[in-house]
Design a protein that fits this description.
Elements (H helix, E strand, L loop, with lengths): L1 H19 L29 H12 L1 H14 L8 H21 L3 H14 L6 H22 L4 H45 L3 E4 L2 E7 L4 H18 L3 E8 L5 H16 L3 E5 L3 H10 L7 E3 L2 H12 L10 H10 L1
Parallel strand pairs: 2-3, 3-4, 4-5
Antiparallel strand pairs: 1-2
Helix pairs in contact: 2-4, 3-4, 3-6, 4-5, 5-7, 6-7, 8-9
């Protein structure tokens, strides 16, 4: 009976102890390390791990076999189809060597430089992002299968090798993918800029006379670019008159119309007069409806009339050098 009484009296004490310290388990939370949110440039693998060094030695020893297997699987998966088999094998060799170097040293600078260089060469040939990511994942799979084959007799050792390899492999895949995407975005920005410049060319017709033909939809961004290009053209060519032809513009809104007026004022400050040509009936009604100040804009019906007005402002006089047909015939009869 004493034991049962003692047990009963002891258990509440234990329960009371637990109730008195309800937050004790929460104190252990700082012990957890969340590595997945660290910056990609921060090494997550222990590159001094003897297992990782052993892995590097294995990859170097089996370089030829693994590289050939990887190139074959790239071809079988129909990746990098824009490249020949010889080109794929050559690039696979370079990527493989850079891959092993990262595993050995932990430094990704050389891999980043090579990935950017590779991206510059293959993006113009139509290689997509999923293809680059795919070949890196294929290499990871080829190497993992090689490790399974090497350590299949010791699963505990295999697990420890994979624990050392996977963080480094993840970092390498991330480095290659990010480098390719950044280069692709840079190329896209350059192409967009080139398209914008071609869509709003500033042409010199004669000395101190420029023409700016505008085609397509004009938004706020393109209107700002138009102003910048025009002002640079005025300065570079010392232009006195600019003809802005908007025949190919279907419509403009209030923001663009006001920006057009500001462009005219900015050009005037740089010493150039602006003539607007090609105003459609719809655009004219829009400009009147939204109340844009047209007092400082010189508008002419079409491009030919705008050029004639510009030549008049510059002091040019057009003289016809062709003789009338009737006078030529009279001369021949008199002769």
């Amino acid at each position: 009976m004493r034991q049962s009484v003692n047990v009963r009296t002891h258990r509440p004490a234990v329960l009371q102890l637990k109730l008195n310290h309800p937050i004790r388990p929460m104190k252990r939370k700082p012990e957890f390390k969340i590595q997945n949110i660290t910056h990609p440039s921060t090494p997550l693998a222990d590159y001094n791990d003897p297992l990782l060094r052993e892995l590097v030695a294995h990859l170097r020893q089996n370089r030829t076999q693994l590289r050939e297997e990887w190139a074959r699987r790239i071809t079988d998966a129909q990746l990098l189809t824009a490249m020949t088999k010889e080109e794929i094998f050559s690039e696979a060799t370079s990527v493989y060597d850079n891959y092993v170097e990262v595993l050995e040293t932990g430094s990704v600078e050389a891999l980043q430089a090579y990935a950017r260089n590779l991206s510059e060469r293959i993006i113009p040939r139509g290689v997509e992002t999923h293809e680059v990511v795919g070949i890196v994942l294929l290499l990871r799979d080829v190497l993992a299968r090689s490790l399974f084959k090497k350590y299949q007799g010791d699963f505990d050792l295999l697990n420890r090798v994979l624990d050392a390899y996977e963080p480094a492999a993840n970092r390498i895949a991330n480095t290659v993918a990010v480098s390719f995407v950044q280069e692709r975005e840079r190329v896209i920005r350059q192409q967009q800029e080139a398209i914008r410049e071609l869509s709003t060319p500033v042409l010199q017709v004669r000395e101190r006379l420029l023409i700016l033909p505008m085609i397509g939809v004009i938004d706020a961004h393109r209107a700002r670019q138009l102003t910048e290009q025009l002002l640079r053209g005025i300065r570079a060519n010392r232009a006195k008159v600019v003809v802005v032809d908007i025949t190919g513009v279907p419509t403009i809104d209030q923001t663009v119309a006001n920006h057009l007026v500001k462009t005219v004022e900015a050009s005037r400050l740089m010493g150039a007069s602006v003539i607007i040509t090609g105003l459609s009936a719809e655009i004219a009604q829009t400009i009147v409806t939204i109340g844009v100040d047209l007092s400082k804009m010189n508008a002419v019906g079409d491009l030919q009339g705008g050029i004639e007005e510009a030549e008049r402002l510059l002091g040019y006089k057009v003289i016809s050098t062709a003789e009338p047909v009737g006078s030529t015939a009279a001369k021949e009869q008199g002769a």
